[in-house]
Predict the 3D structure of the following.
Amino acid sequence: MTQPVAAQFDASALNVAKFGGTSVADFTAMQNCAKIVLNNPATRVVVVSAAAGVTNLLVELAHKAMTRDEINAVVDKIKQIELNILHALANPSAVEPKLNELFEQLEELAHHEEILHRPDLKDAILSLGERMSSLMFAEVLNQHGGKAENFDARNVLVTDNTFGEAVPQIATIAARCDKLLQPAMAQAIQVTQGFIGADEQGNTTTLGRGGSDYTAALLAEALNAQTYEIWTDVTGVYTTDPRITAAARPLAELSFEEAAEMATFGAKVLHPATMVPAVRKNIRVFVGSSKEPDKGGTWIARDCAHEPHYRAITRRKDQVMVTVKTPKMLYAPGFLQQVFGIIASHNLSVDLVTTSEIAVSMTIDNPPNSVRSKINQETLSELREICEVKVEEGFDLVTVVGNNMHSEAGVSSRIFNALREHNLRMICYGANPHNISFLVNASDSDNVVKALHRDLFES
Ligand code: ASP
Ligand code: MG
């Protein structure tokens, strides 16, 4: 196997490596990761997700009313995933007592009377996936001849107490990393958990689904890492989701801005907040496949060799369009402020907005299986007190990401030409020159992406 990353960097420069759920799904997958870590002496901090599927099962336990038997069945599924890894270890007794402790916590929380009503308990149970996978992976590294320890991220990743979507406290994280993680790193490779943190009181919190990338980026920032690798199940970031079109191809490079737009507008390989710490500290980010590390991947950096008009097409599913309408809007400058105040008070984030004289339409994310706030009856009835409200579902948001998209003649017309046969419900130029978005019917979105890809990337 070649050394795709180690060869390019001074070994004294710190690298933070993050492995996603499929990369640590089982013992075999973990072995690939161990090789990647041990191949690069600069990697002293490893951040792991929960083994694939485990967080979804934990979300079920935290959010769904179930009978005792149903709960036990879900708990058993989780245990089985972990036990399969445990039994493949050369020295299972090194981690078995700790794993059993985590199993006990899992059972206790799963059957806790209050679990469905207490956000703090939900986060406590959600944290177990990462706590189990990091325990196992540290041992896999040891088994491969590394010197590794399991580090509890909650000692450094301090957040506020917005359970389910906790906000990291950057300065505190930096101070804690200096004090606790730096010295530990000097002794052994530290294998820690993505996605989880703790508030000032020590209550376990989580950063929102897919948050492990964000954790690793925050640690890379706090530790002044030179590089940050995201190891996943695809060989980098693609021109579009390869599941939509087989013509999608991997990108060698992306700028911070492009990557941030792609993450925001649905590229699953990147968590939307991930780029923020990397940009703040100018940390180069690598995305590659832990199954095929020698295939290379995508480098995300401040400056790119090329800045093409069209870099990629992303799609975000499960969009809801909310239209608010009032004849009063004509006269009331405070109306929009009121509308957005209500939306913000429910923690909903709006992506696209279009206005006419008496109506405003906006799109809101409504993903299933999310711990994020969703548009609900309460929000709607508050809005209905000040205006007419119409809610339409079944949309996807398709975004073209690139450079100088608004300024140069012909750049957007080529996009519109590619879409002339499709029904576009909303069109929105981004607030920056890196994107143009379209709201389309979910049933048509595959075709919209394919048509755009064909015209922009395959000719
Ligand atoms: N395990 C968490 C999730 O599935 C976090 C992550 O994988 O990034 O959402
Ligand atoms: Mg993930």
Notes: Residues 1-11 have pLDDT under 50 and may be disordered. Residues 20-21, 49-50, 55, 129, 194-195, 209-212 surround aspartic acid (ligand 1) (CB under 6 Å).
